[in-house]
Design goal:
This is Tryptophanase. The protein has 442 residues and is an alpha/beta fold. The protein folds into two domains: 21-50 and 298-440, Aspartate Aminotransferase, domain 1, CATH 3.90.1150; 58-295, 3-Layer(aba) Sandwich (Aspartate Aminotransferase, domain 2). The protein is 42% helix and 14% strand. The protein contains 17 helices and 14 strands. The protein has helices at residues 21-30, 58-65, 75-88, 99-110, 124-132, 150-159, 181-194, 205-215, 224-233, 259-272, 283-295, 299-318, 336-339, 346-358, 367-370, 399-414, 432-435, and strands at residues 45-46, 92-96, 116-119, 136-139, 162-168, 198-201, 237-241, 252-256, 331-335, 360-361, 363-365, 387-391, 422-426, 437-440. Helix 12 (299-318) packs parallel to helix 16 (399-414). The relative contact order is 0.16. The structure holds pyridoxal-5'-phosphate (PLP). Pyridoxal-5'-phosphate is lined by residues 51, 98-100, 123, 125-126, 168, 172, 201, 203, 241, 243-244, 252.
Length: 442
C-alpha cells in the first residue's frame, strides 16, 4: 500500500464555523486586517500554529481523569518524571507551564551579562531570554538551514565568551529543517573541547528524530524513539515546549543531570512557576503529557505527519503557490514575495485573501514580524523573505480539510494580479505583528 491515511479514528468531534463572505469581510476589517485579532469562531480552518493546538488521544483524555492534584509529590508528577527519564536519560526533571518558562530557568542560571549563547537559530522567545539575562544570542545556521555551521561555531569561541551552545531541533526559525545526528555529535565534541554545555531546544524532538531516520543512512530503519533517545543523551541540558511534540494543550520541561544547576533552576521554578512537582501545571496536565510523549514517537503517526505535510505542499505547488522546498513536518511555507511581486507587505496581503476566500487563518513570517523600523523615520528595513506559514496542528485536520485550503489557495492564485499591498496604520513598539492594524493600498 502506498496511499497514506490518518492512523486514527475520530471519537470526539468539534463543529467548524462557516462564516459567510460578508461576515468574513466584516471580521477582517474590524480586525484591522490582522488575523491574530479575529476570534476563532470566525475561522473555518485554523493553521496559525501547531503550538498547543493538537488533538489528544482517548488514552490522554482518560489519563486526565486519573490526575493527582496533590500540591507536593503528586502521582501525576512521578509518572511524568519517569516517562521523561526513560526518554531522555536525565535524572533531574522540572515541569513548567510552557517552553519560554523553561528557557528562562536555564538561561538565567547559565548566562552572565556579556556572555554569548550560540545556536543554529534561536527561536524568538529563546533570543528574548538570552537578552533578558544580559547575554548575546548568536545564530550560526549552516547553509542547509537545519544544522549549526561547525566552522563558524568553532571560530565563535575565539571572538565570544560562549556560555552555552543551543541546538534547536527542528530549526523552527528556518522552516523546521532537522539537525542531523552527525551535526549533534560534532557539536558535542566542540562543546567538550571548550568545556561548555550543549543544550537542546527540543520542542519538535520526535519530528527531528523521524527526519534523521529518513536522511542519515546510519539510521535507516531505526525507530524514531531510539533516535530521540540518542539525541537527548548527546546533550547536557534540554528544555522543551511540550505544546508541540508533547501533543497537549499546555506544558514544558527542563531536564538535566547536573544537580547544582538543577537546584538553581528549582529556586527560580518555585518563585515563578510553582512547587517543583507541578511547575505551573495541573496534575492532570502532567498525566496527559506523559501519555503524549509516549505516542508522539510512534512510527505510523510520524509517517502520516510527514506524508500529509508533503502532500499538502505538492498540492499547493500544483495550483501555483510558490512553496518553499523542502517541506518539513510541522508546516508548509509559501513565498508571498514571489506570488505578489511589487506589493507592500505581500505576506499580509496573501493572508487577507486566504481569509476572505475561505475563512483560512495562517501566519506571517515577513516584514511585519521580522522587519525593523528605521530609527531615522524612513521606510521599514524589510525582512529577508516574505513568507506565509501554514502550520499543521497535530491530529486535528484530515486530508479533506487540506483539500479545502488548496481549493481556496487556487482561487487566490488566479486573482493574484488584482491583490493590493498593505500599509501599517498602527503599530506597537514590541512584537508589532500581534497587534498592528493594517489597511489595503487600493
Ligand atoms: C514554541 C517554541 C518555543 C517556546 O515555547 P512556548 O511553549 O510557546 O513558550 C521555544 N522554542 C521553540 C523551538 C519553539 O518551537
Amino acid at each position: 500500500m502506498t496511499a497514506f491515511m490518518e492512523p486514527f479514528r475520530i471519537k470526539s468531534v468539534e463543529p467548524i464555523a462557516f462564516p459567510t463572505a460578508a461576515e468574513r469581510r466584516a471580521a477582517l476589517e474590524a480586525a484591522g486586517y490582522n488575523l491574530f485579532k479575529i476570534d476563532a469562531d470566525q475561522i473555518t480552518i485554523d493553521l496559525l500554529t501547531d503550538s498547543g493546538t493538537g488533538a489528544m488521544s482517548a488514552a490522554q483524555w482518560s489519563a486526565l481523569l486519573s490526575g493527582d492534584e496533590s500540591y507536593a509529590g503528586a502521582r501525576s508528577f512521578r509518572r511524568f518524571e519517569s516517562v521523561v527519564r526513560d526518554l531522555t536519560g536525565f535524572a533531574e526533571v522540572l515541569p513548567v507551564h510552557q517552553g519560554r518558562a523553561a528557557e528562562r530557568l536555564v538561561l538565567s542560571a547559565l548566562l552572565k551579562p556579556g556572555q554569548a549563547s550560540v545556536s543554529n537559530t534561536h527561536f524568538d522567545t529563546t533570543r528574548a531570554h538570552v537578552e533578558l539575562a544580559g547575554g548575546k544570542a548568536v545564530d550560526l545556521p549552516a547553509p542547509d538551514g537545519g544544522n549549526i555551521d561547525l566552522v563558524r561555531l568553532r571560530a565563535s569561541f575565539a571572538t565570544e565568551d560562549v556560555a552555552c551552545v543551543v541546538l534547536t531541533v527542528t530549526n523552527n526559525g528556518l522552516g523546521g529543517k532537522p539537525v542531523l545526528m552527525e551535526n549533534i555529535r560534532a557539536t558535542r565534541a566542540i562543546c567538550d573541547e571548550f568545556g561548555v554545555p550543549l543544550t537542546l531546544d527540543a520542542a519538535r524532538f520526535a519530528e527531528n528524530a523521524y527526519l534523521i531516520t529518513e536522511l542519515e543512512p546510519e539510521f535507516t530503519g531505526h525507530s524514531p524513539r531510539k533516535v530521540a533517545e540518542l539525541m537527548f543523551r548527546s546533550a547536557d541540558i534540554i528544555w522543551a515546549s511540550l505544546k508541540k511534540d508533547g501533543i497537549a494543550n499546555i506544558g514544558g520541561l527542563v531536564a538535566l543531570n547536573d544537580p547544582d544547576l538543577a537546584a538553581r533552576c528549582r529556586l527560580e521554578l518555585i518563585a515563578y512557576e510553582g512547587f517543583p512537582t507541578y511547575g505551573g501545571l495541573a496534575g492532570r496536565d502532567l498525566d496527559a503529557l506523559a501519555q503524549g510523549l509516549l505516542e508522539v514517537t510512534e512510527p505510523s503517526y510520524l509517517r502520516y505527519r510527514a506524508e500529509s505535510a508533503r502532500w499538502f505542499g505538492e498540492a499547493l505547488r500544483a495550483v501555483g503557490m510558490p512553496v518553499v522546498e523542502p517541506v518539513g513536518l510541522h508546516a508548509v511555507y509559501i513565498d508571498a514575495g514571489e506570488l505578489l511581486p511589487g506589493r507592500n507587505l505581500p505576506a499580509n496581503a496573501l493572508l487577507a485573501e486566504l481569509y476572505l476566500e475561505g475563512g483560512i487563518r495562517a501566519s506571517e513570517l515577513g516584514t511585519l514580524a521580522f522587519g525593523r523600523v528605521d530609527p531615522a523615520g524612513g521606510p521599514d528595513i524589510p525582512s529577508a523573505r516574505e513568507l506565509v506559514r501554514f502550520c499543521l496542528p497535530r491530529r486535528v485536520y484530515t486530508r479533506s480539510h487540506l483539500e479545502y485550503v488548496v481549493e481556496a489557495a487556487a482561487a487566490v492564485v488566479k486573482r493574484a494580479e488584482a491583490i493590493p499591498g498593505y500599509r501599517i496604520v498602527h503599530q506597537d513598539p514590541v512584537m508589532r505583528h500581534f497587534t498592528a492594524r493594517l489597511a489595503p493600498m487600493l
